Amino acid sequence: MSFILEIIQGLGSIVISLIELYKWIIIIATIISWVQLDPYNPVVQFFYRVTQPAYTFINRFVNTHFNGLDLAPLILIIGLQILVVFLQASLRALLY
Description:
The protein has 3 helices and 2 strands. It is mainly alpha-helical. It has one domain. A two-stranded antiparallel ribbon has the order 1-2. The mean pLDDT is about 90.
């Protein structure tokens, strides 16, 4: 039984790390949108393709445009942080 818990905790750690990486991708994509780099640059296109589906998902439920500012990245980062806290608490609860 302990072996299975170790595997679950390892997979949980990987998922948490991927969520943290995605949060950084969101931050970088937001900064790129402020600077307005060349839209045909492959790096800019990558960040757009990775973040835009999540933004459209959030915009489907909440109007995130406020005085010309899109708050979807902020809402997404807050939601991901809540998910990380929940996953960490769940993984800690498996130990006890």
